[in-house]
Amino acid sequence: MNAKRTAIALAAALQILSVQAADHTAAASATSATAAATDAVWDLKPLYPSVEAWDAERKAILAELPKLQILKGTLGTAAGLRAGMDQVSALRKRLDRMAVYASLAADVDTKNTENQARNQLGDAAYNQFGEATSFLNTEIAALGSDKVEAFIKAEPGLAKHAYSLRTIVRLASHVLSGPEEALLASAAEPLQQPQNIYSLLTNADLPWPKIKIHGKEVTLDQEQYVAFRSDPDPKIRLQVFKAFWPVYKAYERTLGSIYSAQLRGDVFQARARKFDSSVAAAQSGDNIPEAVYRTLVQEANNGLPTLHRYFQLRSKMLGLKSAGYQDIYVPLAKPKGQYTIPEAEALTLDALKPLGTEYTGKLADGFKGQWMHAVAQPGKRSGAYMNGAAYDVHPYLLMSFTNNYNSVSTLAHEWGHAMHTVYTTGTQPYETSNYATFIAEIPSTANELLLADYMVGHAKSKDEKIFALSQELENLRGTFFRQAMFAEFELKAHEAVEKGEAMTGEKLSAIYLDLLKRYHGDAENVVKIDPLYGIEWAYIPHFYRNFYVYQYATCISAAAFFAEGIGKGDTALRDRYFTLLKAGGSDDPYKLLLAAGLDMAKPDPYKAVVKRMDRVMDELEALTASK
């Protein structure tokens, strides 16, 4: 999930773009009974009343950019630093809002060239802003820690900029000279092109096959694939996989070239800034220890016996003698039925009561506004996300609601992001409102887990309870193990490029296929993996935000910690949880979690989520064994 430009975090610190968003990879699907529901379509007028008003603001922002050059050489006093930071921050805030409007409109219909053009203009404005402010890094870093701290103490107006300033000083060894910073800033736009090309190719231009399913002709695009990969008929599941993945395979060379360009761009930027590796560069902005990433990958591998146990339990419950990759999405039990959006919202409110009446009250108010676009339609961006960068407005959410339980869970997930933004913007000034992705996925995933616990606890029949338990297991698989597998793939791909190895689509597929087999127990005959499915790496848009997806896995580990305690009525833990939500980007995210009681660089949180998965399987096995 990549909600473009939901905020610019530390723009004065290496011009790093950070995003308050979540793409839930199991979110999108095909048909929707909500297509005519006006409350399922967002209202962009709170951002700008018209396209003309948006364009006028864009031009006004561009006119302000040359004025930033006047700030050069004026940051050497406390008052000068405050004035400069205030001016840059105010313009960045306007940029955020402008970019939100363009991005949202473009994602609703990727085939609309006018919207795509406006989105590109928004990108271009950001890049010009980066060029205009590139001198900030060099000048602030040159002040040194002692002087910056003295300025913060002397000038109260610098308090809201303090974290950003300290981050710049911390990263001083990676800040280049003024001309070099300007050169890297001007390179931002071409370095974004692999992602843009990939998005247009996969969302708008791939030639999707037409196949007959249950007697009806279906265009098997990304959303239809998600809809039918869980069909109860194993022959249809296999038919869907055999028809869908050859489309990506046919473009393996092209897709490999696009992602190779992304990888080389990542490595170039890391080396230009004198980092030891791409992963170290990606973690530096938020000051996350590299040990967090590598500990996650190691503990996910240590937990593979639990994942294999889950796949074996699935095969037993489904009556499969030999499971294939096409069998991992089919539900283990029939759901209660379909859900409307109002029913999903009511269910979510009930499930989240342990978070307190203030939280559910704010959430209910959000449901009443037109914050969400939930209608499935051709050309709409796949997946789901929350975009919370328009500080003075409200969050916006995108998903395709398809009336099933997955859509209910996705709704709870994305509104977890939205409420995080509501709490942060209600507490923090704009300058520290942009929380790190490392924390962003915690409240969204905690909502999913609280929903799962509610569904188990309120099941009215054995079948409903089996369904609820199986859905929780699938959530743990998809969010912990699958994202950790993605993280390992990213690490291997970047390390190969860093070693100077050639990177092709065929090689990327080989790396991914090896991981698929290991994670799914191919050698142990747990799940057999057809070599065709090695191309799945090309289906994952998250890889164009380097070293991002691992945070789903770290966050579900943290979310399990909070959800279990809060669900049991631990009010002290709930208080620490809301302190975390309100903290926004006021400190390093790793430190904020430490203050909440979690050390994500140690194995314990990951072992705990694996143990939770084992406990849920114990309950499911006992339930299915009883008569």
Structure description:
The protein has 627 residues and is mainly α. Among the domains are: 38-198, Oligopeptidase f, N-terminal domain (Butyryl-CoA Dehydrogenase, subunit A, domain 3), CATH 1.20.140; 208-250, Helix Hairpins (Orthogonal Bundle), CATH 1.10.287. It has 24 helices and 5 strands. The chain has helices spanning 51-64, 78-108, 113-132, 135-143, 145-154, 162-170, 178-186, 188-205, 222-228, 234-250, 252-272, 278-284, 290-302, 304-318, 341-351, 357-368, 405-425, 437-457, 462-498, 505-520, 550-567, 571-583, 589-596, 604-625, and strands spanning 210-213, 216-219, 372-373, 385-387, 396-398. The chain has a 3-stranded mixed β-sheet with strand order 3-5-4, sandwiched between helices. The protein has a two-stranded antiparallel ribbon with strand order 1-2. Helix 4 packs antiparallel against helix 7 (178-186). The two termini are 42 Å apart.
